[in-house]
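Before surveying the methods themselves, it helps to consider a single example record, giving the amino acid sequence and backbone structure tokens:
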Amino acid sequence: MRLFLSFGFLFLIVSCGKKETGFIPRKFNTIEIQSVLEDSLLSIRAIDILDDNNLAFAANDNSFGLYNINDKSWNISKQSYDSLNFSFRSVAHTSNDFFMLSIANPTLLFKTTNSGMQLVYKEEHEKAFYDSIDFWNDQEGIAIGDPTEDCMSIIITRDAGNTWTKLSCDVLPKTKEGEAAFAASDTNIAIVGDHTWVATGGSASRVLYSPDRGNTWEIYNTPITQGIGTTGMYSIDFYDALNGFAIGGDYTKPEDNSANKIRTTNGGKTWELVGPNQEPGYRSCVQYIPNREGKELVVAGFNGIDYSNDAGSTWTHLSDEGFYTMRFLNDSVAYAAGKGGISKLTFKK
């Protein structure tokens, strides 16, 4: 009898635990879109939600800015350097600083200081073109770009962004002919703890993986559409160390959805096609909705916004309004940027 009671008590504990951790994905059917910045001259592909919940962006025409979400005020500036007119498509932050990285030659990486933005890295090369930047912690960060030799360009900081060092191709996987990355949404890098995934695209579209904050690297193949310069992954995100999703396609054929969505459940080692020949087609950004157990995702592109509540297997089209990139403030509100401005997105059942 004592043994029976012990098993019964154990069953009760397990049953209660299951009830407490039960998760029911939501089903969003509508989205409210409210413009917070309108400027027809701006093309914004890089935004970031800072630790104080303010929104930072950097864009073309040397422009960058900060939006105070609480009082709905803007502080917009232009970064000058040698009379150059350059474009930013990558931003990131630590607890103390904001970073913005330009595309093309010369590559310029700026960091906030008490006296304004300071140049902390410059690269001059005819093939220089950087696509994305992110941080593991307040001391260590990474930025990635197209190859200038026979590997992806990867620069790393270990001193809070004050200095950056480009990794040698001797320690990186070799790229294939025509393999690069897309500076479409500043979402080519996904970081969970010490784990890092980098999405490439073009003639080959693969995932570079580092388990130790960029010290060692390996590479995994994917089944996403690839083979020409406009195909492949445009965006990658991971919910945890195992579950990730990537999306892309061919922006010149945005309706093609035959093989543009892929998913992994083993940390990126293998990937499966999901929703082949089903909407959505080309999208430039994917983001997991925070605190939704990896079930709820949103994708955005210049031809609309879509939502999934089953880890990306099926999708609901929410809006035709186009954006390049987005970031979530919480589990129901995000900010999205594109050609001509930035908008607040509120997801509703």
User: Anything to note?
Assistant: Confidence is low (pLDDT under 50) at residues 1-20. The domain at 24-348 is CATH 2.130.10.10 (Methylamine Dehydrogenase; Chain H).
